[in-house]
Amino acid sequence: MTEIPSREELVARATALAPLLRKHAAWAEENRRLHDDVVEALAEAGFNKLRRPKRHGGYEADTRTLVEVAAELGRADGSAAWVAAVYWIPGWMTCHFPDHVQDEVFADADTRVCGTLSPSAMAAPAEGGVVVNGKWQFISGAHHAQWQEIIAIYVPADGEPYPIMALVPITDLLIVDDWHTFGLKGTGSVSTVAKDLFIPQDRVLPLPAVLAGQGASQLNADGSIYRSPLMPVAAASSVGTIVGLGRAARDAFLHRLPNRKITYTGYDSQRDAPITHLQVAEATLKIDQAEFHAFRLADLVDSKTAGGEEWKLEERARARADMGAVIRLTKEAIDILATASGGSSIYSDIPIQRISRDIQAVNLHALMHPNTNFELYGRVLCGLEPNTLYI
User: Fold this and answer.
1) Quick one: 233 and 365 in the same domain?
2) 348: DSSP letter
3) Start-to-end CA span in the chain (Å)
4) Beta-carbon neighbour count of residue 285 at 10 Å?
5) Which of 34, 41, 40 shows the shortest CA–CA distance to 15?
6) Tens digits of per-residue pLDDT, 312-361?
7) In Å, what is the CA distance from 41 to each residue of 45, 74, 347?
8) I want to staple 149 with a disulfide (CB 3.0 to 4.6 A). Which of 96, 115, 160, 350 is the partner?
């Protein structure tokens, strides 16, 4: 039997990791991957178990817990929080595969599953399974993962092509070290490649079924956290990192504030300037609004899953809109604080410049971009069908 820590305990563990995460944040940026000590600390804190089934020593935590834990991790280092959250999503997706496949994946006491939702590979039928060829980009945490969840377009002998989801040992894939970016540099979001890779049929599922919350697991069929459709779960799993970045920006700004003057003015302390009061207030209110959307999203997912209720199309679209709102509001808040931080903030040892670059990178993510998510929500509100499977 696994002792399940409370949400408060898990958040406290995340807070306690802050000094270690801050210590290695610059190393992670320089080396374009998380430091091994950070990966080990996240594991020791139990964060790789949050979406793991209880029968495999996991906690089966709700999404409100994910938001609060990631927010504390992101307050210290956005890249560390991002990788932790990425592991939660493919880890949850793994729990939709047949139970004997889960037994294999979760045989390791600290399994980390990286993955993607992009169908950038092709799959062909083969005896007993499929053969996959292709490349996936933005595979955060691949350096420290044991498995990858992949998406490919399956072309059957008869019928229309459709996307599939599969599980692959990371050792079966070629890792391409191409992660040279301006933001989220420490996530190690490299590319992976499959060449004539055979995948057994029991490690393959149709993606539309998983998007609808339907899987092949019998033991997880009644587990409330596995009953939801994929996209609301993925959205709720992601927003905590962004909330953390907003808090981090405010922390960094206020830390430097008392000893900063506004050059070429009569203000010996930036704290005395009325413009600073307006900037801090506006940024803080935007961070507060972002947290509202993050927690509304998490509470919606948790209430729907606990009750086993059917999801309305508008609720699914709103889940993505809430994620977009978290990102837009947080970016606006960070932009205000970064602008108010002065020329000295461009030095690499000043945290707000890294935070600013990280939120810009998040804002450009194809499934997280506010414009894309708001358009989808508005389309559904206007009575039109969504123009995507990812809802």
Assistant:
1) yes
2) T
3) 36
4) 12
5) 41
6) 999 999 999 999 999 999 999 999 999 999 999 999 999 999 999 999 99
7) 6, 15, 28
8) 115
Host domain of residue 32:
7-110
Look at the block and give the residue holding tokens 């006491």.
109
Clarify whether residues 302 and 249 are in a common domain: yes
Residue 13 lies in a domain: yes
* Same domain, yes or no: 131 and 202: yes
CATH of the domain at 279: 1.20.140.10
> Is 389 inside any structural domain?
no
What is the SS3 string spanning 94-125? HCCCCHHHHHHHCCCCCCCEEECCCCCEEEEE
Nearest to 191 by CA among 134, 249, 258, 274: 134
Picking from 387, 352, 358, the residue whose alpha carbon sits closest to that of residue 373 is: 387
User: What is the spatial distance between Cα 210 and Cα 215, in angstroms, rounded to a whole number?
Assistant: 6
d(CA 134, CA 341): 44
Residue 214 lies in a domain: no
**What is the rounded distance in angstroms from the CA atom of residue 368 to the CA atom of residue 241?**
12
Report how many domains make up the chain. Answer: 3
Question: What mean pLDDT is reported for the chain?
Answer: 96
CA atoms of 222 and 196, how far apart (whole Å)? 36
